[in-house]
Amino acid sequence: MLISTNISELMEVKGKIALVTGATTGIGLTMADTLLAEGVKTVYISGIIDKDGEKAVQEMTKKHGENRCAYKHLDVRNQQQFEDVFKEIVSKEGGCDILINNAGIVNESDFQLLMEINVFGVMTGCRLALKYLNKGGCVMCTSSLSGFEAYCPYLIAYNASKHAVLGLVKSFGDPQLFAEHNIRYLSIAPGVTDTKICELPPTYHFNQEWGKKGVAAFYSETPQKTESVAKATLYMIQHAPTGSIWVVMNDQLFKITFPDRESYQTKILDL
């Protein structure tokens, strides 16, 4: 049920071109599916496991018709590869309107790899969007409820990376920058969602004990559907103002309003 009644449409997605990273399975693929169902002309999905990408395209083609979905091999850590994918899309389609920076991992044992994907990969996409997205375009960055708090304290690197994504969106989405480039930057922050995050082997955690506790924390919540995150993503692309951050939890969408610094600071002493 829509609660707020004063929300204007900022983008008509029908006929648009979209690129979704990390979209061969899970939330990313459901995002692509939802965009196609809403009339996006073509959705390019990317990932690093080609067999998953080919399978995903077959699935989307069966549901939405020929030439609506295409797969691009893309490791978001590779800036040149990321740019080449954009160039290919723009060359073929005449432009690109939507980028969803969705690629991300959980790997506490290799925190450098995690940061390269979850933070630097998102940064690369945000910067390239300024060069390749059509004016009036939209960049969506997937964060997490962990971007607001240490929702699961045993996922330290992951929590830090998702805080960073919010910082990127606040900066790229600042109204002053929007006035210059006319591209909206948004972030969606899902709570516990029904994905394969709990199937990670113990080697992906800082240690076995923390891994068990992390999984237990996940199972203490009832996971929401990936479809809820995808529907929220579509709604935000259509309606959300630049720089805004929204949470999806318990299959509900919430817009976050951050307090002004003056309202939450407490003076301790003069220095």
Q: Beta-sheet strand percentage?
A: 15-25%
Strands in their spatial order, largest beta sheet? 3-2-1-4-5-6-7-8
**Oligomeric description of these chains:** single chain
Mean pLDDT: 91
Residue ranges: pLDDT <50 for 5 or more in a row? Answer: 1-5
Shape: globular
Write a structural description:
With 271 residues, the chain is α/β, with parallel strands linked by helices. A hairpin with a 2-residue loop joins strand 7 and strand 8. Helix 1 (26-37) packs across helix 8 and helix 3 packs parallel to helix 4. It has helices at 26-37, 50-64, 79-93, 111-132, 156-172, 175-181, 208-219, 226-239, 261-264, and strands spanning 17-20, 42-47, 69-73, 96-101, 133-142, 184-190, 245-249, 252-255. The longest helix is centred in the middle third of the chain and has 22 residues, at 111-132. Residues 1-5 have low confidence and may be disordered.
